[in-house]
Amino acid sequence: MEKSQEGLTVKKDENFSEWYTQLIEKAELADLRYNIKGFLVFQPWSVLSMEKMFSSMEKVLQRKGHSPYFFPTLIPENNLKKESSHIKGFTPEVFWVTQGGDNVLEEKFALRPTSETAFYQMFSLWIRSYKELPFKTYQRANIFRHETKATRPFLRSREFHWIETHCAHASKEDAMSQVKEDMETTKEVLHDIFGLPFMFFERPSWDKFPGAEKTFAADVLNPDGKVVQQPSTHILKQEFPRAFGVTFKDKNGEEKTVWTTCYGPAISRIFASVMIVHGDDKGLKFPWDIAPLQVVIIPINEEVKQKAEKLKLEIEKFASVKIDYSDKRPGEKFNYWEMKGVPIRIDLGLKDLENKKITVFRRDLDKKEVVSESELIKKIKKISEEITKNLTKKADNLFNNKIKDAKNIKEIKKIIEEGGIARCNFCSVEKEGEKCAEIIEKETGAQVRGTKLDEKQKPNGKCAICGKPAHNIVYIAKSY
Amino acid sequence: MEKSQEGLTVKKDENFSEWYTQLIEKAELADLRYNIKGFLVFQPWSVLSMEKMFSSMEKVLQRKGHSPYFFPTLIPENNLKKESSHIKGFTPEVFWVTQGGDNVLEEKFALRPTSETAFYQMFSLWIRSYKELPFKTYQRANIFRHETKATRPFLRSREFHWIETHCAHASKEDAMSQVKEDMETTKEVLHDIFGLPFMFFERPSWDKFPGAEKTFAADVLNPDGKVVQQPSTHILKQEFPRAFGVTFKDKNGEEKTVWTTCYGPAISRIFASVMIVHGDDKGLKFPWDIAPLQVVIIPINEEVKQKAEKLKLEIEKFASVKIDYSDKRPGEKFNYWEMKGVPIRIDLGLKDLENKKITVFRRDLDKKEVVSESELIKKIKKISEEITKNLTKKADNLFNNKIKDAKNIKEIKKIIEEGGIARCNFCSVEKEGEKCAEIIEKETGAQVRGTKLDEKQKPNGKCAICGKPAHNIVYIAKSY
């Protein structure tokens, strides 16, 4: 508690990395002192929000026909081995269970790094006919990766909390429709509820998920100009379902192999983007629906206690609310709850009450407003409807301003150095373009993130790097 | 799908074990064909209900001041070793992670069998003063036990889904108050929402959790006369927090060791009791608040489709609802949804509609009622309020009738053989009574479950076994 009261001592724009670290500690989001490297303890303030994020995402997935499962955390080594590029991609990152009690197990079990090889095995038992397709599932799960890269709380840890959807389809076209649906879901949830702007890319051929035919992903921008990969979605190579014998009888009675897709919104990682995109020098700002607490009441003096309790009863009918009775001074309380990102604060003072006035502070605009007592509830409801929209609009503007067109490597470099995202004509995101991407990375430290799935504009000109005819418009950014 | 349509082929009372197995398969609750022994795939019909069970329990815990955390799944071996009876009790059941990627880890990590040793380590960093006590936490988690006993889906598997609360208190008295609060929580959630009757026992001294000073647990009765241990709650020995240095400064500035309690409602196991206690020869019966689906509409013919859709829109304002458009015959649909335990079914036939009548089937009483169209919504709301009460009342009566007084071992044996719970005077639940408990177990196959925490009656007479003065009234039952 003592530490949190200090407030943040650095500015987000000046030292983003330190700002992020301080925010996690001072807003009590996670404790990094757990004694296994790369594992952390998620504290109530982040868990309460992540629970709401899970619930927002699950509601949309269920509405779109995904059914929920709980699969085992353990996957036999043999399952992982069935698809060669998958095991190659994941092996360096797998935690292995080798003992049960005092006995060495006959077969090693992986702590799931992702669950394709668990789901597909069961798909082969469940799916029989085209009538059952698309077969749409998901699970809420914790997954494990023995990261070789440096870990960063929420962004990259060795255990994280996510949702993984796994679907089987009758054709590649159906699989592609699913990818588009996943993009829509990302918009509905990450953008419209969590307030996060993103671009949905098809990744270049050299940057795919192990075992994927095509990889798509949403990139969210950090204020330091780096993008964070949020939900990715994949059309898997058919070798994958084939390895597990996931087949179905089509309308003509012919036995065919399904096409599979998966989509992986990592809630603990998306929480990082919520912190980063909306937070400011004072601390967190939460969109309304995912705030751990929506309204806090600060009684400035003893005499207003009864009034505070009465107000609480009224507000809790439509929002989560708490009265701060701690023995801190009002100013400390203000700073504390602003750091915590509570959307609405009500300051209850005796003098105001005598004049039938109440002061409302809204964290989205960092603004105080004095409203008449009789209007208070109406006002809170109104603000609650505006908060997410305001945060989203601000984030959208910031994001859109970062995207700039470049004609050559010099311009790309300049845009990247200014913390932006460069858009340019590019020879090809197929294998033959990899060399140009390498040049970009070498010269600017940034990567070709891919082509926008929902972009209508076609390239018209030459590749900004090699000068050959351009087949794609690509986006270039630094990433984590 | 094919299989489910067959319905159950055995009666619950005649072959309980086979009834249970068939129900899991035919109502598609879990698939046991996953290729790791003792691990299963929980399917949507059970997951949807368990999600609601989690949410009911978490709501009550949060209201009572427990804050939610996500702790790592892995616990270093050294943490587990810190308290000797704990490691002794759990070692034979621990799955160990020994490899990360291709490297052998320097220290083994346990897949948590329970998380005291993870929480207490952090408690020692977080708790400073008596002002922070009681410190009340919980987490929703999956836990792992390399069971040496035979596994049984939902009842005892090697991975299960539970909530574990961990609290620190200033005194043993405060710890005891927490135990009573946990008992109340069990009543509020398991009895009042899930409809499960139980008795809350203090376990005899020889039947305690590894590391516990006192163990309490709720026993739920199965129709075959065996009890299932549901949430247990423990006051841990102070050696435990002492091993982790969980201390606080009391009002006088003196450094003291906390007392700790934990409470572990295993949702996947409680789901088994919901199946078993409420289910019948036709299948499942769900209490209203935890039904995966609350209302199903069966259009008997094509012409009522529009009416069905209109009804659905009205009902989904207050309940989950689905129209069954599958190409099964109406009779098959009736059987299917009765097996699935959906509380309310609406049969929409053309003839009824012409007479402005609608047939409503309620699964709690297995009864059809014809209501006028204009009254339908009111009727559904009324039934929804009655369903859990009816199921609970029926279960309570059955449970209470099973408890019978016994004066000697012969009477105990008779009650147990008839599938009941015997209540008798008993010398002592402390160490000196263990011999009498052994005699009971040898003669009847049943165990002394303990003394009722909320029982006011005092023993007045002699031990039913050894004839010495009785200090306790105990309950005796067979268990899983």
Distance between the termini of chain A: 31 Å
User: Can you give the helix content of chain A as a percent range?
Assistant: 25-40%
From the spread of the alpha carbons, the general shape of chain A counts as globular
CATH class of the largest domain in chain A: Alpha Beta
Number of helices of chain A: 14
The greatest interface between two protein chains, and residues involved on each side, is: A-B, 51 and 51 residues
The largest beta-sheet of chain A arranges its strands as 9-10-11-23-22
pLDDT < 50 runs, ≥5 residues of chain A: none
> What structural category arises from helix and sheet content of chain A?
alpha+beta
Question: What features would you describe in this structure?
Answer:
2 copies of one chain form a homodimer. The first copy, chain A, folds into 3 domains: 3-278, BirA Bifunctional Protein, domain 2 (2-Layer Sandwich), CATH 3.30.930.10; 293-383, Anticodon-binding domain (Rossmann fold, 3-Layer(aba) Sandwich); 402-479, C-terminal domain of ProRS (Translation Initiation Factor IF3, 2-Layer Sandwich), CATH 3.30.110.30. In chain A, the strands form 5 sheets. In chain A, strands 9-10-11-23-22 form a 5-stranded mixed beta barrel. Chain A has a 5-stranded mixed β-sheet with strand order 16-15-17-18-19, with helices on both faces. Chain A has helices at residues 16-26, 44-63, 77-81, 84-90, 116-126, 172-191, 239-244, 267-278, 305-315, 330-340, 350-354, 376-402, 409-417, 434-444; strands at 30-31, 41-42, 67-68, 74-76, 95-100, 103-111, 135-144, 159-169, 199-202, 212-221, 226-236, 247-249, 255-257, 259-263, 295-299, 321-323, 344-348, 357-362, 367-372, 403-405, 421-426, 447-452, 472-479. The model of chain A has no long low-confidence stretch (mean pLDDT 94). Chain A is built from 14 helices and 23 strands. In chain A, a hairpin with a 2-residue loop joins strand 5 and strand 6. Chain A is globular and about 80 Å long. By secondary structure, chain A is of the alpha+beta class. The interface between A and B is large, with 51 and 51 residues. Strand 5 (95-100) of chain A pairs antiparallel with strand 5 of chain B.
